[in-house]
Amino acid sequence: MTNDHAANNGENNATDNNALIARIVRREWDQFQRTNNEGGRAACQGNWPVFNQMRTSQFLTWPAPLLESYLDDLAEADRIGRNLVTEKYGRMMASTAPAEYETNIEPYIPRLSGERIARQERIIATQVAWAAAFRARYPKLGQAMRVLTTAEDTPAATSFETYLRGELGTYSDRTLGLYERMVADKTADGRNLTEETILATVRLGGFADLDEAEAAQ
Questions:
Q1: Residue 4 has pLDDT above 70, yes or no
Q2: Which of 7, 21, 15 is nearest to 197 (CA)?
Q3: Which among 122, 126, 160, 190 is placed 20 to 30 Å from 3, CA to CA?
């Protein structure tokens, strides 16, 4: 009886999380549609299936309190006329288009404290190491990923590191604290967030596991 109860709880939690994830991805998509891209609309802004798969696979690795907090961030942003997706891409331009960032973006987005930046950088260092370890283990799947580090950024290619820095910079303090705890918990358990995210991605793409997806590349 106890095992059945635990299994039912697990299924209920997964269902609750899936409902939260669907709401988050839909809000992000709506903000993404309102993001102005230099040179007109980007092709990816019309590709809901890929956007849905990529964002859903990221959020499938998150615990419920973090999902709830980030959904609150998105709802609050909509309420006050802030666009977190636009802001995320704007923050990335600190590396990919620094002159334009300094003039047209930095003055108009929330300034992060030195302490906040330091906290983000500790998370980023852990995640870049995870991504590098994943790429070493699954080189073909790794090739399909973004370039890894900010040093590899170009005006046309944004690295995993820079993308993550842009995204973390949009989180509320509460959301960042919960994200920090998730990263610490995964580190303590010897888990790899990149591996878990890509596993979710390939499963949504119809593969059983990472080995099968790697072999199919």
A1: no
A2: 21
A3: 190
Residue that is written with structure tokens 């059983």 in the block: 208
- Amino acid at residue number 28: E
**Distance between CA atoms of residues 110 and 91, nearest Å:** 10
Distance of CA 72 to the CA centre of its chain: 16
User: Which has the closest alpha carbon to 133: 188, 184, 196, 180?
Assistant: 196
CA dist list (Å): 194 to 57, 127, 173: 10, 7, 23
Which amino acid is it at 19?
A: A
Q: What Rg do the C-alpha atoms of the chain give, in angstroms? A: 18
3-state secondary structure at position 207? coil
pLDDT digits (tens, 9 = 90+) for 103-117: 999 999 999 999 999
For residue 213, give the amino acid letter.
A
What single-letter amino acid sits at 87?
A: E
Hey, what are 136's tokens?
A: 């070493």
* Cβ partners under 8 Å of residue 45, min gap 6: 32, 33, 35, 37
Using the predicted structure, report yes or no on whether residue 140 has a pLDDT greater than 80: yes
The string of pLDDT tens digits covering residues 34-84 is 887 665 566 667 789 999 999 999 999 999 999 999 999 999 999 999 999
Query: Within 13 A of 127's CA, how many CA atoms are on the CB side?
Result: 25
**For residues 210 and 141, what is the distance between their CA atoms, to the nearest angstrom?**
8
